[in-house]
Amino acid sequence: MISLAGRRIVVASHNAGKLREFADLMAPFGIEAKSAKDYGLPEPEETGTTFEENAYIKAFAAAKATGLPAMSDDSGLCVDALDGAPGVYTADWATRPDGTRDFMMAMEKTQALLAEAGATEPAQRTGRFVAVLCLCEPDGTAEYFRGEAQGTLVWPPRGSDGFGYDPVFQPDGFEITFGEMTAEEKHGWKPGQETALSHRARAFRKFARAKLGSA
Q1: Where do the domains of the chain lie, and which CATH numbers do they carry?
Q2: In the annotation, is 83 catalytic?
Q3: Would you call 144 helix, strand, or coil by DSSP?
Q4: Residues in CB range of 189: below 8 A, 6 or more apart
Q5: Are 96 and 38 a contacting pair, CB within 8 Å?
Q6: Of the residues 27, 74, 161, 208, which has the fewest C-beta atoms closer than 10 A?
Q7: Cα–Cα distance measured from residue 106 to residue 92, given in angstroms and rounded to the nearest whole number
Q8: Are 167 and 174 in contact (CB under 8 A)?
Q9: pLDDT at 72
Q10: What is the pLDDT of residue 1?
Q11: CA nearest 43: which of 87, 94, 3, 99?
Q12: What's the longest Cα–Cα distance across the chain?
C-alpha cells in the first residue's frame, strides 16, 4: 500500500481545468501538491486503450521523473448511443491539427453523431463521465480509484463554468448541466459530507478514504 503520510505529491497533468479541480478537492487536506507542468515535465503519449492504462502512463512518468508519488487522472465521456464513444478518446475529439483543444468542436461532433444515430429524445441520449485516479510510486507500484457520474447529453450547450464537455452533460437528478454549476455544486463533496456528484469527486472520495483517512 502506498503511504502519503507527510509526503508531497505530483499531480501528473498539464490540463488547467483538471488542475483547478484537483486543487479544490485537495485543499481541505493540506496536501502539498505540484503539477507535472510545475516540474517542467513533458506530457507522455497516452497509448492505452483503457482509462486505467492511460492514468498509469501519466502517473508513472511523473513519479519516475521526480522521485515522488504521483497521482494522475484519466477521464472521459462515454455515450451509450455511440457505443461508449468518445471514451478514452474524449480529449482527442477536441484536438485540432495544430494540437490546440477546441471542446466546442468536440461537443458539436458528439451532437452530430447523436443526430445521425437518431438519438433525439433524452432517454436515447444517456451517458456517463468516468474518472480513474492512479496513485503511483517511482518503482511502478500503483493503486486505482474509479468514479462515474450518470447523466444525459443535452443540446445546445448550457453554461460557461467547468471545462470540456460540461455544458452538454446534465447529471441525473438535476435540471442544470455541469457547465451551469459552481465548482462546489459540481463536486458535491467535502470531508464529512456523504455525497459526491462529479465523477472526479467520486473517484477522489475513494482515494481520500483509502489514503487520507477521510470519512
Answers
A1: 9-211 (3.90.950.10)
A2: no
A3: strand
A4: 195, 196, 197, 201, 202, 204, 205
A5: no
A6: 27
A7: 9
A8: no
A9: 94
A10: 67
A11: 99
A12: 53
CA-CA-CA-CA dihedral for 45, 35, 107, 195, to nearest 10: 120
Of 214, 190, 187, nearest to 200 by C-alpha is 187
Main-chain dihedrals φ then ψ at residue 113, nearest 5 degrees: -70, -35
For every residue of 89-111, DSSP letters joined together read GTTGGGB-TTS-B-HHHHHHHHH
Q: For residue 130, which of 74, 80, 178, 91 has the smallest C-alpha distance?
A: 74
**Cell numbers representing residue 196 in the block:** 459526491
Catalytic residue among 24, 73, 74, 172: 74
Q: Is the peptide bond between 167 and the residue preceding it cis, with omega within 30 degrees of 0?
A: no
pLDDT at 22: 76
CB burial of 173-195 (b: ≥16 within 10 Å; e: otherwise) equals eeeebbbbbeeeebbbbbeeeee
Alpha helices, DSSP H only, in 117-190?
183-187
What are the residues facing 50 on neighbouring strands? none
How many residues belong to the chain?
A: 215
Nearest to 64 by CA among 12, 135, 138: 138
* Identity of the amino acid at 29: F
Q: What is the mean pLDDT of each run of 10 residues along the chain (215 residues)?
A: 71 81 75 85 93 97 94 95 97 93 96 97 98 96 96 96 92 95 80 76 89 71
